[in-house]
């Protein structure tokens, strides 16, 4: 099993669809993250979960809804998306999110989302 | 504001040669961690090297080393003896004392056989 697994790898959806992205980590980490990666832009942090509790919502539109049922699983529910939401969505985990100055992230391969 | 700048969107290097990727940042913090991440075409981003800001000695990991100039707020990555497998996007990133990493826009490195 790879450390962080994301499914699906590719997703095409219409603006009225509802879909979900899934992330699973097998590293025993306590924190999980969603990042958005768009071309020629820095990675944008979307959400952070620490021990299943959301600790960061970086002004993400409500059409993105995260869910973290336990420390190993993270979902991103998608609803009524816009074409500008097309991007690579990366999931990551880390061992000690609150440990000062020492965050090391372990990433999944990403889910490539295309919104038509 | 805390920012990270990678001014080289693309770089190329001949195989077996050395290449340096640049990164500058702006912060008022005095203690922080700095990272270089590599994202190959398969897309899984992996950590290449890490540097603690309070350490004067530059970090080294095999063929990868950093040139950390704290006063200049510069953090460059040097890749020696470049190999075809080094082709990837490289991102520098900083942790300024919280749980969030701030990333640059990345540099796409091409290795010329």
Task: Characterise the protein shown here.
The complex is a heterodimer of chains A (116) and B (113). With 116 residues, chain A is mainly beta. Chain A is 0% helix and 55% strand. In chain A, the strands form two sheets. In chain A, strands 2, 4, 5, 6, 9, 10 and 11 form a seven-stranded mixed β-sheet that branches. Chain A has a four-stranded antiparallel β-sheet with strand order 1-3-8-7, with no helix packed on it. The N and C termini of chain A lie far apart (33 Å). The mean pLDDT of chain A is 89. Chain B is mainly β. Chain B contains no helices and twelve strands. Chain B has strands spanning 3-5, 10-14, 19-21, 24-26, 33-39, 46-52, 60-61, 64-69, 74-79, 88-95, 101-103, 107-112. In chain B, the strands form three sheets. In chain B, strands 2, 5, 6, 10, 11 and 12 form a six-stranded mixed β-sheet that branches. In chain B, strands 3-9-8-7 form a four-stranded antiparallel β-sheet, with no helix packed on it. Chain B is globular and about 40 Å long. The mean pLDDT of chain B is 92. Chain A binds chain B through residues 2, 31, 40-43, 45, 48, 50, 55-56, 88, 90, 92, 94, 97-98, 100-105, 107-110, and chain B through 4, 9, 31-33, 35, 37, 42-47, 50, 52-53, 91, 95, 97-106.
């Amino acid at each position: 099993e790879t450390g962080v697994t994301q499914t699906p790898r590719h997703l095409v959806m219409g603006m009225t669809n509802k879909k979900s992205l899934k992330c699973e980590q097998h590293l025993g980490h306590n924190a999980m993250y969603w990042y958005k990666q768009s071309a020629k832009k820095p990675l944008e942090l979307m959400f952070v979960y620490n021990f299943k509790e959301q600790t960061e919502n970086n002004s993400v539109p409500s059409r993105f809804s995260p869910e973290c049922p336990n420390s190993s699983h993270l979902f991103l529910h998608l609803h009524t998306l816009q074409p500008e939401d097309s991007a690579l969505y990366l999931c990551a985990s880390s061992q000690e999110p609150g440990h000062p100055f020492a965050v090391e992230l372990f990433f999944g391969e990403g889910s490539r989302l295309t919104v038509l | 504001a805390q920012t990270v700048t990678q001014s080289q969107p693309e770089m190329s290097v001949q195989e077996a040669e050395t290449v340096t990727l640049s990164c500058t940042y702006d912060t008022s913090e005095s203690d922080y961690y700095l990272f270089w991440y590599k994202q190959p075409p398969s897309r899984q981003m992996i950590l290449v090297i890490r540097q603690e800001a309070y350490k004067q000695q530059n970090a080294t990991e095999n063929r990868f080393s950093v040139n950390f100039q704290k006063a200049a707020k510069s953090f460059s990555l040097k890749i020696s003896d470049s190999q075809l497998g080094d082709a990837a996007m490289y991102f520098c990133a900083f942790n300024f004392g919280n749980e969030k990493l701030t990333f640059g826009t990345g540099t796409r490195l091409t290795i010329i056989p």
